[in-house]
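Provenance

Sequences were taken from public entries as deposited. Structures were produced by running a predictor on each sequence independently, with no templates supplied. The record for Alpha/beta hydrolase from Amycolatopsis tucumanensis is shown for reference.
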Amino acid sequence: MVAYVIIPGIDGSDEKHWQTAWEERWGATAVRIAPASWTEPDLADWVAAVGAAHATAARRGERVVLVAHSLGCWAAAEWLAVAQPRGVGVFLVAPPDPRGPAFPRQAAPTFANLRARPLPCPGLVVASDDDPYCEPAASAALADAWRVPWRLLAGHGHLNSGSGLGDWPSGLGLLTEVAA
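Predicted structure for Alpha/beta hydrolase:
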């Protein structure tokens, strides 16, 4: 059985976000991170929150998949680099470009200088061709640096609540590439 760690971006995922719908679908096999710094993200706090959620999820499933959105992608990648866990996969949706003009440097300064490094597990980066936080070339470069496949979707913005994805069934289809 697979357990999931839900890793939202700044301020968490609201009730209309696909991460929230998936968390409800998965029930007890899903664990959402709980950092103390949702609004003004601190990298160390978020990485610790990923580790704590992973520890809980690992007791609920034989395999764990990290399901990250936006800034949560960076928290997941940094935790993976430090923890080097086994039996993990990672689904990275709409990672923001730390060097891009729209990166939330003031709200999340500890995330601003991060660089993508090879991930120690299977994964997938999913991006949109019109994401205001990451140009397609930048998201492709992140996937390449993380050494995971990349999927570019057309016209879905930041792949969040404002994108109108609902429970995002095609995203669940993409997730199977990691969870299988």
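The chain has a mean pLDDT of 96.
The chain is about 35% helix and 20% strand.
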